[in-house]
Write a structure and sequence with these properties.
With about 140 residues, the protein is an alpha+beta fold. It has a single domain (about 1-110), classed as Alpha-Beta Plaits (2-Layer Sandwich), CATH 3.30.70. It is about 15% helix and about 35% strand. The protein contains three helices and six strands. The chain has helices at about 15-20, 65-75, 110, and strands at about 1-10, 25-30, 35-45, 55-60, 80-90, 100-105. The protein has a six-stranded antiparallel barrel. A hairpin with a 5-residue loop joins strand 2 (about 25-30) and strand 3 (about 35-45). The longest helix has 12 residues, at about 65-75.
Length: about 140
C-alpha cells in the first residue's frame, strides 16, 4: 500500500469531539449515488463489558478534489486503508469550526485512470506516392 491522499479535509456533519474521534481511528469510505464520498467512523458499543456491536457513524463527506481522485477506484470496489490523522476542535481553530483530516492509502494502480493518448504525429502527405501528371 502506498499513500494516495496524504491529507484530505472532511466536510463535517457533526461535532467530532462529541463522538470521540481521535487521530489513528479507522475510517470507512462509501460512494453515494450523487457521486460524493461519505466518511464513516466505527465507534465501540456503549454497553458495559464490551457487549453489543460497534456502531458506524457518518462523519461527513470528502472534498471535490479527493472525491475526483478516489471515485474511479471506489466504483471498482478497491480496498483502501483510511485513517484519521488530525482532529482540530472548534475552540482551538482560528475559524471557530471543528475540522477532521484523513489519510488514504491503497494500490496506486487502482486509482490510475486509463487515459486515451493523443497521437503525436498526424497523417502527412509527404510519404504518399506522387500521382501521375495526367491525374493532376
Amino acid at each position: 500500500m502506498q499513500p494516495i491522499i496524504h491529507k484530505a479535509a472532511i466536510a463535517l456533519d457533526l461535532n467530532p469531539v462529541s463522538i470521540g474521534v481521535s487521530p489513528g481511528d479507522r475510517a470507512l469510505l462509501s460512494m453515494n449515488s450523487d457521486t460524493t464520498v461519505s466518511v464513516f467512523v466505527e465507534r465501540p458499543s456503549r454497553l458495559p463489558f464490551g457487549l453489543g456491536k460497534p456502531r458506524v457513524v457518518l462523519l461527513g463527506t470528502l472534498g471535490a478534489r479527493a472525491t475526483e481522485i478516489l471515485l474511479p477506484a471506489l466504483e471498482r470496489k478497491a480496498d483502501f486503508r483510511v485513517r484519521i490523522i488530525e482532529v482540530e476542535p472548534a475552540h482551538l481553530s482560528r475559524s471557530g469550526r471543528a475540522s477532521v483530516y484523513v489519510s488514504v492509502w491503497g494500490n496506486p494502480a487502482d486509482v490510475a485512470q486509463s487515459k486515451s493518448r493523443p497521437s503525436i504525429f498526424t497523417r502527412s502527405k509527404i510519404n504518399d506516392p506522387v500521382p501521375p501528371y495526367s491525374e493532376r
